[in-house]
Amino acid sequence: MVKSLLTYTLLLLIIFSGFSFSQDDITKRKTELENIRDEISNLETQIKNQTKKEKQSYAAIENYNKQSFLLNKLIVKLRSEEKAKQNEITENQKSINELEKQIKQLQENYSKYVVAVYKYSKMDELAGVFDSESLHQAMVRIKYLQSFSERRENDLKEFEKSKEELVILRKKLEKEVLKKFKIDKEEKNKDFSHYYYQGLLLEIGNLRGYNTFIPSQDKNKLFLNKKLLELATITEIYSFTYQNVVNRARTIDVIWFNERKYPSYFFEVEHSTDFQNSLLKFYDLQDFKTEFFIVSSKSRLKEYNHKIQFSAFKKIKDRVKFVDYDFISHLHSKSYELKKVGDLL
Q1: How does residue 2 score in pLDDT terms, banded at 50, 70 and 90?
Q2: Which CA distances in Å does 110 have to 57, 97, 305?
């Protein structure tokens, strides 16, 4: 009996002690679960806020890209208009030169006629008619004199007409020059210069998946309403070789680096400076498997072709390519359009 009682007592103690352990464990796990739920809630809030900021940033980038794209189209249009105006100016100048030449000839002819009239007078002409040996000869001389007189009269009329046309053409030329000046001024006001094309090259490189770099002295220069440092993806140039060569490379206007941190493309924008400085930089970097580009105005192509023929640049002559501003503008537009298509796919 006593043995049975002891057995029951031990069993009850074990059950109650096990029950107490389970309750503590459940309470502890419940507390941990509540903490985890709080952490999840905090993370969800952070993610929500972060997503909202990212959406705002993405929207701002999209608006900026649209602005850049539209402005780029405006550049192309302005340059096309400028070219058309320049062609009109050239044609008008040719017409003016031709008219001035005709007027000069008419002046010489009329001058000879006046001298002849003064020298021989009308009386000599009449005497020539009366001295004719026959009526037929007299009629021929009269007809010749009439024809000569009519020709001089027509020359005078043509002279006056040419003078009027010359005045009109000169006014038209002045008007076209003023229009061209207005276009040039509009472009200048928008600062389509060295830093603008650096910005375009940075954006094209970014769209194509390269790491982009610009020299430290250009980082605070403006591209539209942004600093160039905001467009470049790296602030410090990669140490891809010996330090003295890297120091030379860091002066290049725009560099595109590949995923292995080696330079794939070097760009030098030559808005007004000498091509020779850029070519010397490329010469110093010729041992790398990279593409070299000179970006400049189409009007400077002849100057570039002259410089690249120097014997000092013989080894890089076939590796350096000249591209004009219009090409870069079109390339930027097309790159942006391709990105938009890619986003939709």
Answers
A1: very low
A2: 78, 20, 50
